[in-house]
Amino acid sequence: MNSFIPWIGGKKLLRKEIIGRFPRDKIDRYIEVFGGAGWVLFYKENKTGQLEVFNDIDENLINLYRCIKYHAEAVQKELDWLLVSRETFYNYKRLINIGGCTDIQRASMYLYLVKVSFGADRKSFATSSKNIDNTKKLLIEVQKRLSSVVIENKSYESIIKVYDRENALFYLDPPYYKAESCYDSKFTEEDHINLRALLGNLKGKFILSYNNDPYIKELYKGFCIEEVIRNNNLSNKNKEYKELIIRNY
């Protein structure tokens, strides 16, 4: 199935390439470290007996996932009769972080901001046509898919340490190098180095998506590094964009 939200750096166009490189031996636990829109999680097979973990550092995003998992109909109800308007967008942007809202209200506001913002940046109102009704109808289906997924709100260091086992597969899609300013969560050059160090000592397996940058290639030298090409989904032109898929198996 598809994700229910757009996302900066979302892997809609690379999910088949990523899942096609999953290890063929048995994996008992699957962990998405930088969850975002969850394009890989939603597209992968939901295997019986396999623990699935979805993690992200963004508290509002994780609140949205948890509210859909446990209260999808209540989130739908909050979205009923909402019109797409600039006034509503900036009002929600102001209200979402000042407190006084329930988790369900905050989840519906955040979903609205993601859906009607430019490029899903939650910062600027999109002038192109937007419709949240289709997303609202999908929430029950999303709830079913998330029913057995463990939803975490931890740092990448913490989630890796907690779930690392020999039979684990980590999928990581960190903020891209030299594009960190496009993301809400702070991620520095030291974080890129620290992530590499953590993955170098991993007991389990990892598959990692990154931008095609010489620094990243050098940083992960010694691992399996493949260049893949996708279309640029933020451009109206049919431009191609190179990315890296990096593995330790």
TrEMBL record:
Keywords: Methyltransferase, S-adenosyl-L-methionine, Transferase
Gene Ontology terms: biological process: DNA restriction-modification system; methylation; mismatch repair
SUPFAM superfamilies in the cross-refs: S-adenosyl-L-methionine-dependent methyltransferases (SSF53335)
EC number: 2.1.1.72
Keyword S-adenosyl-L-methionine: yes
Residue numbers binding S-adenosyl-L-methionine: 7, 11, 56, 173
Record InterPro entries: Ade_MeTrfase_dom_2 (IPR023095), M_m6A_EcoRV (IPR012263), MeTrfase_D12 (IPR012327), SAM-dependent_MTases_sf (IPR029063)
GO MF annotation list: S-adenosyl-L-methionine binding; sequence-specific DNA binding; site-specific DNA-methyltransferase (adenine-specific) activity
Keyword Iron-sulfur appears in the UniProt entry: no
Annotated catalysed reactions: a 2'-deoxyadenosine in DNA + S-adenosyl-L-methionine = an N(6)-methyl-2'-deoxyadenosine in DNA + S-adenosyl-L-homocysteine + H(+)
Domain of life: Bacteria
Family: Belongs to the N(4)/N(6)-methyltransferase family.
Name under which the protein is recorded: site-specific DNA-methyltransferase (adenine-specific)
Biological source species: Thomasclavelia cocleata
Organismal lineage: Bacteria, Bacillati, Bacillota, Erysipelotrichia, Erysipelotrichales
